[in-house]
## 1
Amino acid sequence: MTTDQLTTTGTMFGPVDAEPYPWPYDGSFSPSTTAIINIDWQQDFCGPGGYVDAMGYDLNLTRAGLAPTAAMLEVARELGFHIIHTREGHRPDLSDLPANKLWRSRRINAGIGDSGPCGRILTRGEPGWEIVPEVAPLPGEVIIDKPGKGSFYATDLDLVLRSKGVTHIILTGITTDVCVHTTMRDANDRGYECLLLSDCTGATDYGNYLAALNMVKMQGGVFGAVADSAALLASLGSPL
């Protein structure tokens, strides 16, 4: 079936084999009402010379989800899902940077706005702020620029999603325990049905990564559900 045929017929998928419940809760999802949000796959977070590298963390941990994400996006794009990307970064004059966030970054020798191998750290327009080539946005895909951890804070993400009729969200990105988790929690509070792809995300600490996944699954799925990309792709290969 071609992408045009899928769009016109409103093909439905689901459920995905997820924990702690088959996702989504309402039994099915469609490309027209589902957004795949790729959070902060930026040079600063998963590339040499960036913010995370300057802090001394193992880049293999934050890069681990890149290949599965790229493979999943190839399929999702063919099927016509809404593809959205986010970038964390601050205005060049740092007028949107809280003093405590700046202080903390300088305390660990990765001062936001300071010069580094990838330009000024976590600053809009700099090389480190750009999304890495493996999962780079295609023309026409929405990019949300955010100053904070969550993708809803100080952005128009909620307006974009609602204008597109999105009710379900699938999340990839970094880091699992910070920006991804914050976004998933905020999305859940806004009524979006969320799925986090466990192999399409990563954290600077593996223990934090595991804990973040486990927190999602508590209380019957307090923020949504967790599955790997293979489970999602299996669902996408068998339309209802």
## 2
Amino acid sequence: MTDADAWAAEAEDRVLDKALELAPTMGWTRLTARAAGRACGLTPADVELLMPNGAADLAALLARRHDARALAALGDVDPQALKVRERVRAALAARIEAAAADGPAVRRWAGWLALPHHLPLAARLLWASADALWRWAGDTATDENHYSKRAILGGVLAGALAIRLQQGEAAAMAFVDARIDNVMTFEKWKATTRLRPQDALRDLAVALGKLRYG
């Protein structure tokens, strides 16, 4: 990593930390990114360099942070010692708790992503989170199931996180368990999954709306 890359990574972390403090009252906006940067001693030009897309870049940083924290929490778990459904459950639990730790800001994050013109970004971020979890779980599928699994898991993650923030961990994991029982077996995926892009976006919008409005 170059000095410039190291500076950028450290600055992004500091700005994100401050944005998480500001977001519950300021919302998830470009102004929040600018205010967070200013509070960290950065110039407007620095913030523009780090986050040219403003709130979108900030949203991606938060999703990647939560992904990294979930994988770190799973570091002592051997996925090969677990059944597939147990791996999926453990991965989802870790990712949900990573996000729940920033609950007030995550509600604002979700509300911003739930806006229609931000749904494509929301889908990409949740797909990336699901991909990281599936890779940890040892998934090596390369056919169409590679994509349907990630789309389904992303929807489960969004729905479970909404429940976690509203009703607590037990209710969220009960939802996860029910979803695993209903749709998360390889044979059922292969036999019944006919997932269309518009269906995935619709389900994602519903889950994010629950996060935003309760």
## 3
Amino acid sequence: MKRQFTTFCLFLFVATAMFSCKKDETSLKARIIGKWTVNKIEVSGNTNAALNGTFNYTVNDYMDFKANDDDQVELSLNNQRTIGTYTGSLGNDFTMSFPEGISYCTTSTLTTNQLQFTAKIDKTNIVKVYYLTR
């Protein structure tokens, strides 16, 4: 009886280890994690017209979706770094929270080297379309 119990426990341990360590490669969050170069951001909806338009960036500008427990996202534009958080939702949607507010984002393009999404900032008319590459 003791041998059967030991065999059962060993089997249970191996089965648990095999299925619990499966890497998530299909969720939106798993596919956007990492550092992306910001190529341009198209902004509309600002009451100040000078803040609307297409803004182009250099290879030094980036957005980094961290894989840590805090779900941090780091945005660095023109040597100005901002830390926020992001949360994956169902399908192609996610949210980002920066000091300027919460953005509700919808992904339109996501490949291994290209990410494009539209971000609507909560309680405003401001919409930003981000064009990122790796």
## 4
Amino acid sequence: MENSKYPQFTFTWLGGVILLVGMFAGTTVTSFFNVFWMFVFKENLQYKDWFFMLANATGFIAAIAFFDFFIVRRTTGKKLNFNFSPTNFYTYVLIFPMMIGMMFIGEFITSQIPTTGPFFGKYYEFFTQLMDQLTDDPVVMVITAVICAPIFEEIIFRGIIQKGLINKGVEPRKAILYASLIFGVVHGNPWQLVGAILLGCVLGLVYFKTKSLLLPMLLHGFNNLCSTLLITYTKSESFAEAFKVSEWMVLAIGLVLFSLFLYLFTKRNKVHYNEI
């Protein structure tokens, strides 16, 4: 597709390094800004909820900008650009129940990971305290988790890493898996690892099939919105606790939903999309 308006860049280890350097540069800028603010106004912005959101967004934006400038433009002669086109209503009807099924399956697997013991106990306590600090302000939590994270993370993990691997010649299912594994690992804890990998596989499949980055962004936002609501109103991310059912019931419903709508989406849905 040489006439495509979307650059056909590839993703290699160098691209990964560029993303990390960009992320570091972005967060460093916000850190210096905080130091300047402390020096002039005698106030530490690090403890402001909105500053965490700003620092997070700045890191992602810098990473994407670095990859665009140092990889995409230098190898393709084009600017980094993605397809954000909406799709037909039938596709939305299929992908959201499939996502819910995946979320239920992920919750069951996550519930089997220990939260007590000499290693997991201290780690889980640290993780819980960290999450509590990040969710003090519900408005900031919604903006960060439901809006910013889906946009920036989908651009990087699906739009850059997965697409770049496929453009490099990696088999699509392997590219989806690799991007999902990286997506899971960067969450930095075992209780989000499984859910993030499963989420990434569904998002990667949807992106590969529809060729639109809008759909995985919407699904990602929906997933994070559900987690935000569960944390806000039940103090946990458990559907089982919210609906007063066993985790085995959650697993059974998840398997049915995911299997059925995965089949309908991949086998029965005859609508295919191309990036032009």
